[in-house]
Amino acid sequence: MLDNASPRQVWEAALGELQIQVNRPNYETWLRRTVALGHDDGKFTVGVPNTFVAEYLDRNQRSLIEKVLTGLLHREVRVGFRVEPGSGGVGAERGGRAAAAPPQQGSLPLFNPKYTFDSFVTGRSNQFACAAAAAVAEKPGQAYNPLFVYGGPGLGKTHLLQAIGHQAAANDLKVIYVSAEQYTNDLMNALRERATAEFYQKYRSVDMLLVDDVQFFSGKQKTAENFFHTFDELHNAGRQIAMTSDRPPQAIPLLPEGLRSRFEWGLITEVQPPDFETRLAILQEKASEDRFDLNGDVLDFLARQIQHNVRVLEGSLNRVIAYARLVRAAVTPQLAAHAIRDIGGNGALTPAVTATSIVEAVARHFQMSPADVVGKRRDKEAITARRLAMYLVRQHTGS
Ligand code: ADP
Ligand code: MG
Predict the structure, then answer these.
(1) For residues 340, 38, 390 and 350, what is the CA-based torsion angle, rounded to 10 degrees?
(2) Residues 197, 249 within the same domain
(3) Which end of the chain is more exposed for a tag (fewer CB within 10 A), N or C?
């Protein structure tokens, strides 16, 4: 059904699929900033921001991407990756020093170009955390040191941390952003390769150290102690440290006491689930980033359905957009409900879903017979129903 779609439309639909199939850090790092460059007789060309990404995708994601494209286009597709410097999307090229630095083994200092203060929507749930982050970005080492942001998954902690990084890098500060897990891996590698001097040089020479998800240090005594020293060295030198965690310091088990108390030295601030108005504003922001016009009813519906996680909220919006492009029909809240059914509040679809049961459900929804859905009726209703059924069958049965 995408046979007549432009490469751009196809790739957008493919990204919608891929976002569901790969984990989020992967998607953010490798796929988000890609664009379609062309499609010629089964050869699909994807533009990527740099050779590093091209090589990674070529090596690790090629077969998955080809599978998704093949599914969408109903023909064998081979994919090629080409460096297209413009494809970094907004802000990719002006991310400042740290953002432009070539990624090194063991750490990925690439900031997500979308994670800026400008694109962060504030409301009661997060305005204090956002103001604190902005103060730290403006006056590193002076406002609050360290800054500790905690809250549940998908509530914008990484977004805020990277927003700090973007701004500091734009002010020519030397910034490192790592997850606590990357820091741990980096340290382990350094120890194994007897390269601890480089490790210290790297982490202790920065103006700002941003560490995501420090709850990961729990129970990792060696790394936690090492981080303790890095922390002290930077802090004593007046360098800024900012961290995130899924819980407040006192709730992180198995952490050296000294490290826990250091986490509490500066400012501790929480991000909470956004209220309805903020969720709606976030959806509007995302839809306009994607330049996609969705009916207000649909945004309203999504904002009501998904309440506790902005990542899921965003994922549902992407699904609805990909879906709208596939079926080329105006999206109503009912159709949106179909598109997000298995990620919405109602839990996963049961594995008993089959092509037949989908066709029956779609037929019921459109008040026609299953034969009309799969048959030759060419009127608008039947075609929409057919496309919806095909979409759902592909999503839920893998056929
Ligand atoms: P966390 O690190 O807390 O798990 P993330 O920072 O990764 O969450 O956020 C998940 C997704 O939701 C990201 O794409 C982020 O841009 C988006 N997001 C979260 N909160 C907001 C917000 N207040 N405004 C805009 N986007 C947000
Ligand atoms: Mg995060």
Answers:
(1) -40
(2) yes
(3) C
Question: Which among 186, 185, 242, 174 has a CA at the least distance from the CA of 214?
Answer: 242
Q: Residues enclosing ligand 1, CB less than 6 A? A: 115, 119-121, 126, 153-159, 282, 285, 310-311, 314
- Using DSSP's 3-state secondary structure scheme, residue 352 falls into coil
* Residue range(s) defining the domain that contains residue 52: 1-97
Distance separating alpha carbons of residues 106 and 266, to the nearest angstrom: 29
Cis amide prior to 248 (ω within 30 degrees): no
Helix (H, G, I), strand (E, B) or coil at 79: strand
| Residue with CA closest to ligand 1 atom 13 | 311
pLDDT tens digit string along 275-320? 999 999 999 999 888 777 888 999 999 999 999 999 999 999 988 9
Answering whether pTM is above 0.85, one says no
The CATH number of whichever domain residue 230 belongs to comes to: 3.40.50.300
Which residue's CA is the closest to the ligand 1 atom numbered 19? 156
In the sheet where 35-40 sits, what is the strand order?
Answer: 35-40, 43-48, 78-83
163 in any annotated domain:
yes
H-helix segments, 264-309: 276-289, 296-305
- Write down which residue in 271, 290, 309 finishes a domain: 271
Residue 107 counted as domain residue = no
Would 84 be classed as within a structural domain?
yes
> Domain check: are 131 and 90 in the same one?
no
Question: What ligand 1 atom has the least distance to the C-alpha of 151?
Answer: 3
**CATH number of residue 45's parent domain:** 3.30.300.180
User: Around Cβ 276, how many Cβ atoms within 10 Å?
Assistant: 12
